[in-house]
Amino acid sequence: MSRSNRFYIETWGCQMNELDSQRLAGQLMRQGMTPTRSVQEADIVLLNSCSVREKAEHKVFSRLGRYRLFKKANPDLIIGLCGCVAQQVGERALARVPDLDFVLGPARVGELGDVLARRHQGERVVAVGFPERADFDYDSISRDGTHKGMVTVIEGCNKNCTFCIVPQTRGPERCRPIAQILREVEQLVEQGFLEIELLGQTVNHWREPGGEQDFAHLLDRVASIPGVERLRFVTSYPRDFTPPMVKQFARHPNICPYLHLPVQSGSDRILRLMGRGYTHGEYRELVGQLRDARPDIALSTDIIVGFPGETDGDFFETLELVGDLRFSSVFAFKFSPRPGTAAPRLDSPVNEETGSRRLQELLALQESIQRELNESLVGTEMPVLVTGRGNEPGAQAGRTTCHRIVHFHAHNGDTPLGSITPVRIEKANPHSLLGSRLLSSISS
What we know:
- The structure is a single chain.
- By secondary structure, the protein is of the alpha/beta class.
- It contains 13 helices and 19 strands.
- The chain has helices spanning 15-30, 56-73, 84-89, 92-96, 112-120, 166-170, 178-190, 215-223, 243-251, 268-274, 280-293, 312-325, 352-375; strands at 6-11, 34-35, 44-49, 78-83, 102-104, 125-127, 148-152, 154-155, 174-175, 195-199, 230-234, 258-260, 298-305, 329-334, 381-389, 395-399, 405-409, 420-428, 433-437.
- Strand 10, helix 8 and strand 11 (230-234) form a beta-alpha-beta unit.
- The longest helix has 24 residues, at 352-375.
- The termini are far apart.
């Protein structure tokens, strides 16, 4: 089997998967390989998969079938299945796809070099499971872009919500030491990153291994590093938010006034069936504390409709919560049964038609709220972190501190990617803002 020098990675799913792909790319580049944007030109193809939604496995194998066509033209092409579906299906993937070379779970990302070496010796490799100790070589990460440096602080999840497959695909919680996290952030600042995003399935459940420091301490330390202009973190679990964590929003202005805080349902009965561990009243109280600490905070959330047993009354409580709390954005989905989870075994499943109707009703309500919230920003001046091209010729795009997308015209030349520039907001859509770059600077 010949050695390979060009690689192509396709990434599905969350920010954790995006960072895992950057880790995979970094390991390949350290071996002298170069990335390509064309799968037809690749010598190695990696599919970094997500299994949060139903039919994920079917979609993955459909895509692998497409990749097999390229292997007919290039018999030495190496195809690897990575990510959460890889962990979920394991050896079954090799049996189902004869041309698949290896399977690599998310907890084994750092072993890619060893896996490739074994494959070059003729072995079809399955590297899944959760080793007790795994080194996190952040020096080898190939950072994608210049605007945001992502830093994993905690991997896995111990919550076992009845609808969620993450504990099976990402394993139990494993926290990184604070000293290692701080070194990585300092390195990113030295490389010119202005925005840092701390990652974890339950990021605010981070604890110092063998110590007493919690996520409030970590926020304080990272926000205090010179050069960290913006600090974000995702995804937070409502039950794990503490008053000291809330206080950090008020203490550090560089902690962005944005928080993704999944509620999943506005009904206490459904929240109990989901195993979430909080009530809608407790969630509302937490939102009140966050808004008291940071009045300009924008909140987004996740909501599942059509969960087994959800009645019209339960759904109305969700609509009521959304109307009252006025989220800046909502990621809403119909219930999606996942293998090995408890929810599919619950009584009274909601039929497809009812689930679809509820989803559309929820999305319509949220779109009207987003339009109103965005329209309230027209005429304001906001610092925008430039991330790429805009939706019109000559326009650029970026994110505000409250995580809204802004398309803007510079009029006198492009602003460098990864820099922060002042923009006057001139128009609002439900899902984005439009504006013009200002010549004078404003505080970021």
